[in-house]
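U., I forgot to send this yesterday:
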Amino acid sequence: MKITINDLASTMGCEVIGDGALELSGVSSFDDARADEITFAVDPKFLNRLSDTRAGAVIVPLDFINDDSKNLTCTLVKSENPKLHFFRIVSRFHPAKEPDRTVSPMASMGCGLTLGTDVTMGPNVTVGDNVTLGDRVCLMAGVFVGDNVVIGSDTTVKPNVTVMEKTRIGKRVLIHSGTVIGSDGFGFTPNQGAHEKLIHAGFVQIDDDVEIGACNTIDRGTLGRTWIGKGVKTDNLVHIAHNVTIGENTLIVAQVGLAGSATIGKNVILAGKCAVSGHLTVGDSAIVGPGGGVLSDVPPGEVVSGIPQMPHKLWLKVGKILPRLPDFRKRLLALEKRVDRQETGQRDSSS
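Result:
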């Protein structure tokens, strides 16, 4: 496949500076791109090195001004959102493989199944009773779907995903391999020195346009629902406990853990390895930094870090102090000894 720079730019409303007739055969990273490939630059560390790249074209911010035009050999494509437009170009050169839209003879289907059009089921798919699958649903090899599950149109479930009974999944959802949706929550109560299991009779609801990363575990509600709102994106290895609610368009990075009945607002960012304790609320548009531990409610729009969480700017100061604590301890002990000697001397002289 070869596409001219002008053709690519016209579809995205971008401005071309240079040879727009140049034909491109692919995409690549800034340092690896060849003369027939396109890349992108957003950060100053790349924008300041445009003369170093061998790419035929570079997508840059709309307000970028090149002060080194004499040494510049590539064509510039000015964009309002360089990263977004670059990866749209990536999808043109590397389009996703279309599923076969067939049902494997090795798939197992229960009673009362309602199928939309062009449904795909790979080998060893197991679908329970009274399941509803919308149009163009794709269940890849080894997927398990329990009883009374509803999956909306254009949803793709990748290999070896488990979707337990009563789960409700919306349209255009993407679920990556190894994820378990609708498992029992971690609920036990003491009884005569042992831990008796609490039955979880609830369900999981996943709204439209959600993407769930690989090896996520999303527990069913104890009685009601665990609810993941429209447009939420989770990374790999995320745990979402029973009765958690996650608002629209929230981003959850790898190894985040959300305890039972936590409420996460809209447009929140939970950075890698952070954790939110049970029954707490993280407000809309808040950010929890990497490794943060949320032990009390976070107001809307707040940026917090650390354990327990605190305003991010304060945490930066705390982080600088922590490595110096051993030295502070030595100085404090020395100071205490000096004070003790002075007090001892004063007592001796007064007696």
